[in-house]
Amino acid sequence: MTATPAELPARAVLQATGLTCTIGGAAIVSDVDLGVQDGELLGVIGPNGAGKTSLLNLLSGLLPATSGAVQLDGQNISGWSPHRRARAGLGRTFQTSSVFGELSVAENVSIAAQAFLGGNLRLWQPATRIRGRSERAGAALELVGLAGRAGIAAGSLSHGDKRKLELAILLAGEPKVMMLDEPMAGVSAEDVPELTELIGRVRRERGATVIMVEHHMDVILQLADRLAVMHHGSLLLCDTPQVVMADATVQEAYLGGAL
Ligand SMILES: Nc1ncnc2c1ncn2[C@@H]1O[C@H](COP(=O)(O)OP(=O)(O)OP(=O)(O)O)[C@@H](O)[C@H]1O
Question: Which stretch is the leader sequence (predicted)?
Fold first, then answer.
C-alpha cells in the first residue's frame, strides 16, 4: 500500500550520520545521527562542554570529522571546505559578534549579498548585479528592523542590534539552513524578548530552516519545534520540547547544571 503524504517521513534538508570528531584521543562529538527538516527550528541544548558548538563546527566544516557524513539537500558535503558549504547554503553565526565595525550596517549586509550573488567586490559591476545586491541587502535589513540605521558604522550598534545585523548578513546570503550559535549570548536581558520575536519572524516570513544552539531555555522553548540534547559529545535525545523536558535522563544530565 502506498503511504499517504502524512505518513511519509519529512525531508531532511541537513542530515548528519555517525558524525564523530576525536581530538587527542577524546571524542568531542561521538556518532551523532541528526536531521533537520525543511522549515523547522531545531534547538540544540546541553550542559557546558557537551559538544554543541563542535557539532555546528562539524556541520559547517570548520572542524574536520574523524568519521561520519553530512548531507545537504541529499548531496554528500562531507570533506567540503567551510566556504564551499556556505556557498551551497549552510549559513552560520558565531557565539561572538562577527560584524565589520568600521563598515556601515548596509555595507556589512551588501558584502554578504555580493558573496551570495557571486563575483568579487571590484568597483565596476554590472548595474543588474548592483541592484540585486542592494535589493537583497535592503530586504534583509528591513526584516530585522535596521533599515533606518543602514548608514551608521556597525561598530556603534548596541550588542543586541549587532545580533540583528548578523541575522541580516545571514539572510542576505539566502541560506538553505541557518545555524545560530547562541544568538542571545551577551545580549542584555531586556533585549532578549525582541531578538526572540525576530528569530520567530524570520522563520515565518522566510520559511527558514534553523539549527539554534542556546542556553536560554525560555527562548528555545518558545521557538523550537524539536530539541536535540547533547551530553558528553553524544546525542542523548531528539524529540519535541514536551517529550525532552519530561525525560528523566535529560533531567539527570542537567542535575546541578544550567540548562
Ligand atoms: N579544537 C578543539 N580542540 C580540543 N578540544 C576541543 C576543541 N573544540 C572543542 N573542544 C572540547 O570539546 C568539548 C565540547 O566543546 P564545545 O565548545 O563544543 O561545547 P559546548 O556544548 O558548545 O559548550 P558551551 O555551552 O560552553 O559553549 C569541550 O570539552 C571542549 O574543550
Answer: none
Q: State in Å: Cα 78 to ligand 1 middle.
A: 21
pTM (predicted TM-score): 0.87
Tell me which long-range contacts 186-193 makes (C-beta under 8 A, separation of at least 24).
186/96, 186/97, 186/159, 187/159, 187/160, 187/163, 188/159, 188/160, 191/158, 191/159, 191/160, 192/216, 192/219
- The closest residue, in CA terms, to atom 8 on ligand 1 is 54
Domain boundaries, the chain: 11-89+176-259, 97-174
ipTM of the complex, rounded to two decimals? 0.94
Query: Does 53 sit in the ligand 1 pocket, CB within 6 Å?
Result: yes
Distance in Å, CA 249 to ligand 1 centroid: 22
Place domain 11-89+176-259 in its CATH homologous superfamily.
P-loop containing nucleotide triphosphate hydrolases (3.40.50.300)
